[in-house]
Specification:
Elements lengths: L3 H37 L2 H5 L22 E4 L2 E3 L4 H7 L2 H10 L8 H5 L3 H14 L20 E3 L10 E2 L10 E2 L10 H20 L1
Parallel strand pairs: 1-3
Antiparallel strand pairs: 1-2, 4-5
Bound molecules: heme C.
């Protein structure tokens, strides 16, 4: 009988370790799913230097650390941010809230991320966190007309206009323009206006030719 507590202890340990193995396996699955989403979601195209040029042959250790060449258009000049430094600063709920409510400047396809399910966004966060922080912050955003010393691609002048209002600054980043006062069930009016003015410009161009 004196072995009973000892045996109970061993049984308890076995239960605890099998439970933690189950949780770890579950986390691994979510991380794998996050990796898959980042990969097929096109995130590396912009946030990982050399990814497009090498047809995706960049090791995971270099993924999502931003890049030093930007895109200049009517919105100013933007640089794909270092997402690994960003996720190191915020928790999972903060990530989901941020993706749901913030808009960023072009050409970041924020609306694709916004429309992902919660569980997909959380899996993406877990994967990005699992990579660990690396690299340095991307160059800061520049307003329209500001010169940049960094290489950049120039967009045509009739590219989509920036949204109208600004949100308060977020950790480690400059404030982004946003239409966040609007409901997202339909495109924000500033985006609708921009699409409308583009369509009008294109149709009057078509009439001329
Ligand atoms: C076409 C290029 C492009 C693609 C593709 C792209 N991004 Fe971005 N991303 C950017 C740029 C540029 C910025 C900075 C925008 C700004 O300064 O407002 C940005 C900003 C971000 C931010 C910061 C948002 C914030 O709240 O501050 C996150 C997070 C992000 N991208 C994640 C992703 C993920 C995840 C994907 C894949 C689903 C992705 N991006 C695809 C260009 C891109």
């Amino acid at each position: 009988m004196r072995h009973v507590p000892y045996l109970l202890g061993i049984a308890w340990l076995a239960v605890v370790s099998s439970l933690s193995a189950t949780y770890a396996a579950e986390d691994d699955k979510r991380i794998d799913h996050g990796r898959y989403l980042v990969k097929i979601g096109g995130c590396n195209e912009c946030h990982t230097e050399g990814y497009a040029r090498t047809f995706g042959k960049i090791p995971e250790s270099e993924w999502m650390i931003g890049r030093e060449w930007g895109e200049m258009g009517p919105w100013g000049t933007t640089f794909p941010v270092n997402v690994r430094l960003l996720v190191a600063e915020i928790n999972e709920d903060g990530w989901v809230a941020r993706i749901r409510h913030n808009t960023t400047r072009p050409p970041m396809p924020w609306y694709n991320l916004r429309d992902m399910t919660d569980s997909d966004l959380r899996a993406m966060y877990l994967f990005l966190r699992s990579l660990g922080p690396a690299g340095k912050a991307a160059p800061a955003y520049l307003h329209p007309g500001e010169e940049t010393k960094f290489p950049h691609v120039q967009f045509p002048a009739d590219a989509p206009r920036p949204p109208r209002t600004e949100v308060s600054p977020r950790p480690g980043l400059q404030p982004a323009h946003t239409c966040d006062t609007e409901a997202y069930s339909s495109p924000p009016s500033c985006i609708r206006e921009s699409v409308q003015s583009r369509t009008t410009a294109l149709s009057s161009q078509a009439k001329r030719s």
